[in-house]
Amino acid sequence: MQNFYERYKSHILLKEIGISGQERIKSSSVLIVGAGGLGSPLALYLAAAGIGNIGIIDFDDVDVSNLQRQILYNDSDVGKSKVEIAKERIEKLNPEIKVNAYNEKLTNVNALDIFRNYDVVADAADNFQTRYLVNDACALSGIPDVWASVYKFEGQVSIFDAKKGACYRCFHPVAPKHGSVPSCGESGVIGTITGIIGSIQACEVLKIITGTGTPLIGRLLYFDALNMVTKEFKIKKDKNCSLCGTNPSIKELQDYDEFCQINKFAESEITSDELKIKLKNKKNIQIITICEENEEQGLAFPDSLPVALNNIVFLKDKLNTNNDTVFVCKYGYKSIYAIRLLKEAGYKGKMYSLKGGTDKY
Amino acid sequence: MITIKLNGNNENIKEIFSLLKLLEDKKIVPDTVVVALNMNVVNQTELDKTFLSNGDTVEVLRFVAGG
Predict the structure, then answer these.
(1) Which neighbouring-strand residues pair with A159?
(2) What integer pLDDT is reported at residue A260 of this predicted model?
(3) N or C: which end of chain A has fewer CB within 10 A?
(4) Sequence-separated (6 or more) residues with CB below 8 Å from residue A24
């Protein structure tokens, strides 16, 4: 017990936390979804703060490109399971806590069973499917979803607690079409923003556990690190919300790949090997590289035509419908979205998207 | 004409102009953004029914999932 007072002296000194608050922290359990840029500071600060039971779920291994921002990991961890390393690291930081590492994908099958063991979930995922899943599973389990998200130099934080305020579906009921919003890997992200935003997220977790201060329920905090400006927006609970409204239609977990239309154009996908064979055998193939507007980049296919997503529909009247058109981008998401846009615009030619993108070619 | 502030910049627009029309004019796909009118997030289903008034502040944030 003496170690308790010594270790958490600086928390106990705060009248907003004190001994009772620190004991509440000790007896609480928090699940972190995603052990990446946001998950790293979250896990470190929550472990240091003395959260008695921390769960971390992620199915990825450490990649060298993660080290620019994912401060849980060292260079020697490349190739190893993220959650195993995370567990090892934070148990070393605080041996008094219990850590559960879930080296698996969060799905509509396992989510409710896992969430049942936690008081709070911190959503640090990197895709929309998981974020809608976390929100729905939290609302159905009656626990708060401490949510944060980053993009380039920007971060956003809120708490979606359907019992007390808006949920993620009240905030944004319609998922963006798959590929229309780039991921961190595609758009780039400054490492420090994940540290700033993940730390704010950890702070919100500690506040709701200790019942102190004014949590971000019904509020969106927007942080712009490029200009060092913060803004705050109100998020109203939507009485027509399909999940937490007065007459909800969602009573169980959904198919989130379908909700986010992940597989809708999967039949257009072509693997690297298939493309290589295709290029060898056939001459009338036009390759289009999807790039950001004004983006200077070395093209993986030097003969390809670089086109920004915003201008894709203008290709409708320029492409030869007798030729096969192959769309490529870094990860193979935007290229699928490009096919969708052209199909919706009425283009009838044969189109392919390079599966896994130029990254895997 | 009325004047609004869009992400900090003055914009002159016609009267009886909805948030959805504003996004369309700016070639912004509604489901990829979060739109706030006078610091209140506007539900996506309300964008076409929310009309702008002189002096309104509109902020359009990207809807992102990066972590």
Answers:
(1) A146, A217
(2) 87
(3) N
(4) A209, A210, A211
ipTM score for this prediction: 0.96
Instruction: Kindly state the tokens that stand for A204.
Output: 């919100």
* Cα-based distances in Å from A121 to A36, A46, A145, A318: 15, 12, 5, 49
Q: Which of A127, A181, A183 is opposite residue B32, by nearest beta carbon?
A: A181
Instruction: Identify which of B27, B44, B64 has the shortest CB distance to residue A173.
Output: B44
Dihedral angle computed from the Cα positions of residues B13, B15, B21 and B27, in that order, rounded to the nearest 10 degrees: -10
Query: Are the beta carbons of A233 and B44 separated by less than 8 Å?
Result: no
CB of A68 within 8 Å of a chain B CB? The answer is: no
Q: Best residue in A127, A181, A333 to probe B by mutation, most B CBs within 10 Å? A: A181
pLDDT in tens, A121-151: 999 999 999 999 999 999 999 999 999 999 9
Best to test chain B binding among A233, A333, A337, A344 (most B CBs inside 10 Å)? A233
Which residue ranges form the domains of chain B, and what is each CATH number?
2-62 (3.10.20.30)
pLDDT digits (tens, 9 = 90+) for A52-73: 999 999 999 999 999 999 999 9
Q: Among all chains, which residue has been given the structure tokens 């008695």?
A: A52
A329 catalytic, yes or no?
yes
Judge: A150–B45 Cβ closer than 8 Å, yes or no.
Answer: no
Q: Which of A138, A167, A170, A184 is catalytic?
A: A184
Measured CA to CA in angstroms, residue A299 lies from A139, A285, A289, A293 at distances of 45, 17, 7, 14
Q: What is the pLDDT of residues A27-37, one digit of tens each?
A: 999 999 999 99
Where do the domains of chain A lie, and which CATH numbers do they carry? 2-259 (3.40.50.720), 266-360 (3.40.250.10)
Tokens read off for A52: 């008695």
Q: Do A126 and B65 touch (CB under 8 A)?
A: yes
